[in-house]
């Protein structure tokens, strides 16, 4: 073997070694990147699952607790004799976040009341001012709120309440039309003779306005929906998570 | 390719005069902080996060739900990756895309005359009573963050990055070369 050939073979060996090293290096890089990507995607997946799971609503499993309209304009839902803890629910039938709260935690609130764990007090109010969307939003809210006041409590009140949120129009378009409100009330089981004229004549509109003013000033609300447990505001991170809300109420009931 | 020479010559020695790596490091930190704050503000109330996505009236409800649940955690994970400097270029590119999407979303809301809160840092997308929407500020902020994302994706992790420590960012040298000395353009084209 000549010198040139030996040199060549040494060079080849070095080259092969170098290539192998590069190859290993590349493999290691790919492995590291893959691991990091998997961990990152795993974290995102776990976070997504946690968010979805924590927002899952309960089912309404039993008959509602008795529902009565109080003289002060609120509506109480509680098993007879249950006076505390008190869960105040401040909501506007036209507010999208209230609809979201009802869809998420509404069933939990009903269940807890039916289980005799809490006295629920609904405060249907109108928070939108005349300036918003040229008054359309406020008018929607007032019609719905006034119509709910034409129902003297009972299960139909809650069914009507749920129906209003289900049918909530966009904030910028006219909705909650009077004839619809009458029809939904009848479908909710309202039988009283005066209901239709009460709704179409908007007989409770001024009551809705007065009650809203009173609550907005008295209860120091920053917005709707607001839940208060024994007078203390519950954070959104609890109010919008059924399991957390249930826990908070049960703790207060101890 | 630069092949093995990169082993013997640590990039640091060649680039001590360059400020660029620090620019991307600072970009990373700024972008990461905003993303983490934004994600943290939303992650506690997924339902409201979904609400604010729906308030844009751009996505069908089912997709809005997926985005609303996923966006907060995505922002936080991307933010953490940017802080530690892992998968930096990808994280920078994703942040830039996110910001671009936000800018488009807000601009579209503005153009359609909707009145919402951008929901960028939490809340349900509804303006508080008496508050005027401030779309221009939102758009300017997100455009600035978009630029930071592009800088990061383009120039790589910079200083203090896990990518460099783990040897995932060998391409850094070529850019450093360009900054540091008279560098050959075709070296950049390799990457």
Automatic annotation (TrEMBL), chain A:
Pfam families: Thioredoxin_4. It comes from the Bacteria. Signal peptide: none annotated. Residues 86-240 form the Thioredoxin-like fold domain. This is Membrane protein. GO terms for molecular function: oxidoreductase activity. InterPro entries: Thioredoxin-like_fold (IPR012336), Thioredoxin-like_sf (IPR036249). Belongs to the thioredoxin family. DsbA subfamily. Keywords: Disulfide bond, Membrane, Oxidoreductase, Redox-active center, Signal, Transmembrane, Transmembrane helix. PANTHER family: DISULFIDE BOND FORMATION PROTEIN D (PTHR13887:SF14), GLUTATHIONE S-TRANSFERASE KAPPA (PTHR13887). The chain crosses the membrane at residues 30-51. It comes from Streptosporangium carneum. Residues 1-23 are annotated as: Disordered.
From TrEMBL, chain B:
InterPro entries: Methylamine_util_MauE. Residues 21-154 form the Methylamine utilisation protein MauE domain. It is a multi-pass membrane protein. It is found in: Membrane. Coiled coil: none annotated. GO terms for cellular component: membrane. Residues 171-191 are annotated as: Disordered. This is Methylamine utilisation protein MauE domain-containing protein. The lineage of its organism: Bacteria, Bacillati, Actinomycetota, Actinomycetes, Streptosporangiales.
């Amino acid at each position: 073997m000549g010198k040139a050939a030996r040199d060549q073979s040494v060079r080849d060996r070095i080259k092969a070694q170098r290539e192998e090293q590069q190859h290993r290096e590349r493999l290691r890089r790919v492995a590291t990147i893959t691991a990091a990507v998997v961990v990152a995607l795993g974290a995102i997946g776990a976070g997504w699952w946690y968010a979805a799971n924590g927002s899952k609503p309960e089912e309404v499993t039993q008959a509602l607790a008795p529902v009565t309209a109080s003289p002060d304009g609120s509506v109480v839902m509680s098993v007879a004799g249950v006076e505390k803890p008190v869960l105040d629910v401040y909501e506007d039938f036209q507010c999208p976040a209230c609809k979201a709260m009802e869809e998420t935690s509404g069933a939990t609130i009903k269940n807890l009341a039916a289980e005799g764990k809490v006295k629920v007090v609904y405060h249907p109010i109108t928070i939108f001012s005349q300036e918003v969307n040229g008054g359309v939003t406020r008018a929607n809210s007032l019609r719905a709120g006034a119509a709910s006041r034409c129902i003297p409590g009972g299960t139909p009140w809650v069914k009507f309440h749920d129906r209003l949120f289900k049918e909530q129009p966009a904030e910028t378009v006219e909705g909650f039309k009077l004839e619809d409100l009458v029809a939904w009330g009848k479908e909710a089981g309202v039988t009283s003779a005066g209901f239709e004229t009460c709704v179409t004549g908007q007989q409770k509109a001024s009551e809705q306005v007065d009650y809203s003013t009173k609550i907005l000033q008295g209860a120091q609300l920053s917005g709707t929906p607001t839940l208060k447990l024994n007078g203390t505001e519950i954070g959104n991170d609890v109010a919008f998570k059924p399991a957390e809300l249930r826990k908070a109420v049960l703790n207060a009931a101890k | 390719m630069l092949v093995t020479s990169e082993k013997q010559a640590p990039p640091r020695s060649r680039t001590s005069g360059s400020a660029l790596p620090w620019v991307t490091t600072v970009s990373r930190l700024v972008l990461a902080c905003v993303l983490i704050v934004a994600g943290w503000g939303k992650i506690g109330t997924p339902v409201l996060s979904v609400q604010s996505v729906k308030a844009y009236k751009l996505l069908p409800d089912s997709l809005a739900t997926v985005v609303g649940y996923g966006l907060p955690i995505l922002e936080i994970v991307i933010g953490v990756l940017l802080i530690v400097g892992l998968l930096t270029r990808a994280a920078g590119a994703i942040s830039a895309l996110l910001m671009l999407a936000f800018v488009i979303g807000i601009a579209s809301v503005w153009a359609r005359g909707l009145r919402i809160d951008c929901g960028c840092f939490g809340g349900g997308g509804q303006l508080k009573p008496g508050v005027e929407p401030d779309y221009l500020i939102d758009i300017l902020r997100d455009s600035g963050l978009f630029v930071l994302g592009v800088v990061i994706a383009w120039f790589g992790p910079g200083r203090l990055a896990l990518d460099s420590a783990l040897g995932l960012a060998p391409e850094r040298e070529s850019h450093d070369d360009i900054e540091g000395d008279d560098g050959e353009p075709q070296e950049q084209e390799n990457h």
